[in-house]
Design a protein that fits this description.
Elements (H helix, E strand, L loop, with lengths): L5 E5 L4 H16 L3 E7 H10 L10 E6 L13 H21 L7 E5 L4 H8 L3 E6 L3 H7 L2 H6 L14 E2 L8 E2 L11 H12 L2 H7 L2 E4 L7 H6 L4 E2 L19 H7 L6 E5 L8 H14 L3 E4 L13 H4 L4 E4 L4 H5 L4 E6 L3 H9 L4 E3 L6 H11 L3 E3 L10 H12 L2 H18 L4 H14 L2
Parallel strand pairs: 1-2, 1-4, 2-3, 4-5, 5-8, 8-9, 10-11, 10-13, 11-12, 13-14, 14-15
Antiparallel strand pairs: 6-7
Helix pairs in contact: 3-4, 11-16
Family: Belongs to the UDP-glycosyltransferase family.
GO molecular function: quercetin 3-O-glucosyltransferase activity; quercetin 7-O-glucosyltransferase activity
Protein name: Glycosyltransferase
């Protein structure tokens, strides 16, 4: 390149969306691209606070912010002026950057499909664009089918199921229960409608107006799903490697030295992403379930994970066997030889990270795509088992203990986990499908 191509990356403002696009940003910078990474002011502040002191910034990546408004309004109605403000904020930022850096203006925009309106801004400004899908190919294939689901009377125009049945797109892909779709949010139908309206309904149009479509997955892992969306470019699993992973909370790296002191294959690792919240009863059952296993554990408990306190005496009784942190360097944790299994909410990023490290899963989905991810983990890949709530919707301590014991003693699951690890690693290694897809994508966007 005579001059550096300049890519602007715009994630949806939450951990599960910022993380994979930050990894992509570093991959592009390593290929010589200049990258401007755009967050809302609140997310930008969290990221800057979470960056380790010893971290060396990449000279080609700039982190910038725009006023709040990238996210949907949870409590309000759609307002044309809000959408107009979003357009204006982004348009003004691009124009400002292009004035200041007229030798290296923005040549390409990569936007999370959840903020697809940014692709509309890009198109109006004559800038080529890429839509980025932060979840799996199978779930995205289902999203693209939503007009047909409405037409068939399976759901209404707000994404609410009208029939209790299963939806199948392929014999090789687990079917979806209509109550466990990508936009499902149990117990809050209004929120489910908002999710459908803001994240799903415009997706087909966003795909049409973008020049490229990237997915954080691999053909080696989801071949049948990839076949359903032939215009998609799988480039995953994306890894942070030694780069900053785009965390919104500071990582507690003391857990790594703690893991060094534990026997190989002994530690239960528990992490539930950035949005899962448990009530007091469920939190207590989880704590007691861990305690009665008698196994070492590393448990990530965010400050907003629960309003409950730890059960009386729990911290004292488990002081020698457990380690609790607010946020962990997850890829490094999962790669550690002391890890036995991963108790996970099955968010797509966690799924890709656990799979890439060959760690068996104990699946505990919470909402959205996590239910289908669990089915893929347990039924297709056969690298995990699922927790089953009781009649009151609570996963009991005995269920937790029993499933952990079942998981860690299942030799077939361990063999499958190592097999899938090789497949995931192969996809991003030289000659792998994602490796070749990424290099091809890089060469194409260099031309603009």
């Amino acid at each position: 390149m005579d001059r550096k191509a300049h890519v602007m990356i715009i994630p949806y403002p939450s951990q599960g969306h910022v993380g994979p696009l930050m990894k992509l940003a570093y991959n592009l910078a390593d290929e010589g691209f200049k990258v401007t990474f755009v967050n809302t002011e609140s997310i930008h502040t969290k990221i800057m606070s979470a960056i380790p002191q010893e971290f060396e910034e990449h000279s080609l990546i700039s982190l910038v912010s725009v006023p709040e408004g990238l996210e949907f309004n949870r409590h309000g109605k759609d307002r044309f002026e809000e959408v107009a403000e979003r357009f204006d904020h982004l348009k003004n930022l691009i124009e400002k950057i292009n004035r200041l850096e007229n030798d290296e203006p923005i040549t390409h925009v990569i936007a999370d499909i959840s903020v697809g309106w940014a692709l509309q801004v890009s198109k109006k400004m004559g800038i080529k664009s890429t839509a980025f899908v932060p979840y799996g190919s199978a779930n995205f294939a289902l999203v693209l089918q939503f007009p047909k689901l409405i037409e068939a009377g399976i759901m209404d125009v707000n994404g609410i199921p009208l029939k209790d049945e299963f939806i199948s797109l392929s014999k090789e892909i687990p079917a979806w229960n209509t109550n466990e779709l990508v936009w499902s949010f149990h117990g809050d139908q209004e929120l489910q409608k908002l999710i459908f309206r803001h994240f799903i309904r415009e997706t087909v149009e966003y795909v049409k107006i973008s020049d490229f479509l990237l997915v954080n997955s691999a053909c080696e892992l989801e071949q049948s799903a990839c076949d359903l969306i032939p215009n998609a470019i799988p480039i995953g699993p994306l890894h942070a490697s030694n780069h900053f992973a785009g965390n919104l909370w500071p990582e507690d790296s003391t857990c790594l030295t703690w893991l060094d002191r534990q026997p190989n294959g002994s530690v239960i690792y528990l992490a539930f992403g950035s949005t899962v919240v448990y009530n007091k009863q469920q939190f207590n059952e989880l704590a007691f379930g861990l305690e009665i296993t008698g196994q070492p554990f590393l448990w990530v408990v965010r400050s907003d994970f629960t309003e409950a306190e730890f059960p009386d005496g729990f911290l004292e009784r488990t002081a020698n066997s457990g380690k609790i942190v607010k946020w962990a360097p997850q890829e490094k944790v999962l790669a550690h030889t002391s890890i036995s299994c991963f108790v996970s909410h099955c968010g797509w990023n966690s799924t890709m990270e656990g799979l890439s490290m060959g760690v068996p899963f104990l699946c505990w989905p919470y909402c959205a795509d996590q239910f289908h991810n669990k089915d893929t983990i347990c039924k297709n890949w056969k690298v995990g088992v699922g927790l089953v709530p009781d009649e009151n919707g609570i996963v009991t301590r005995d269920e937790i203990k029993g499933k952990i014991e079942q998981l860690v003693s299942d030799k077939d699951i361990k063999v499958n986990s190592l097999k899938l690890k090789k497949m995931a690693r192969k996809s991003i290694s030289e000659g792998g499908s994602s490796f070749k897809n990424f290099l091809s994508f890089v060469e194409q966007i260099k031309k603009f």
